[in-house]
Design a protein that fits this description.
The chain is mostly beta strands. A hairpin with a 4-residue loop joins strand 5 (62-74) and strand 6. The protein has one domain (2-16, 26-140): Immunoglobulin-like, CATH 2.60.40. The strands form 2 sheets. Strands 1, 2, 3, 5, 6, 7 and 9 form a 7-stranded antiparallel β-sheet that branches. A 3-stranded antiparallel β-sheet has the order 8-4-10, with no helix packed on it. Helices cover 5% and strands 49% of the residues.
Length: 141
């Protein structure tokens, strides 16, 4: 299994961008990719967990921060929402927030996946420029 920063290789073709806005303002997050997980050479199920890597700093700077995280699988020619059978009944989209700090997906092997942000919203308490950073962990089940 290989994991890489998505860059231009994910579902949306560009990295997720979380803008910095003025203190006391709301902001939104546009669609973008975080990681590509290539499990094409592994036939078993995999756990993919996406973490906020700097939650302490974010909690000081934001009242709330919510990201709609989705998993897409690569078909013959295009990215598609990962079907429930590949997620073993878990939803293909979950909300990552300051409250939960991580989201996990159980995925079938033998596929290539994009872990992406579909949307998001936040409210700043302190506009010191802290941007969220993410970490992904991929484990065989």
């Amino acid at each position: 299994m290989a994991v890489s920063q998505a860059g231009t290789n994910g579902r949306f073709g560009h990295t997720a961008n979380i803008p910095v806005v003025a203190e006391g303002s709301t902001g939104t997050v546009a669609q973008g990719d975080l990681y590509v997980v290539d499990a094409t050479s592994y036939s078993g199920d995999i756990w993919v967990t996406l973490y906020l890597d700097n939650p302490d700093a974010l909690a000081n700077d934001y009242s709330y921060m919510n990201f709609n995280v989705s998993v897409y699988s690569y078909g013959a020619t295009a990215w598609n929402t990962a079907p429930a059978t590949q997620l073993n009944g878990d939803p293909a989209s979950q909300v990552l927030s300051l409250t939960n700090g991580y989201v996990s997906f159980l995925l079938a092997g033998s596929k290539k996946y994009s872990v992406s942000l579909d949307s998001g919203a936040f409210y700043t308490l302190d506009a010191n420029g802290t941007a969220p950073s993410f970490f992904v962990d991929v484990e065989p089940r």
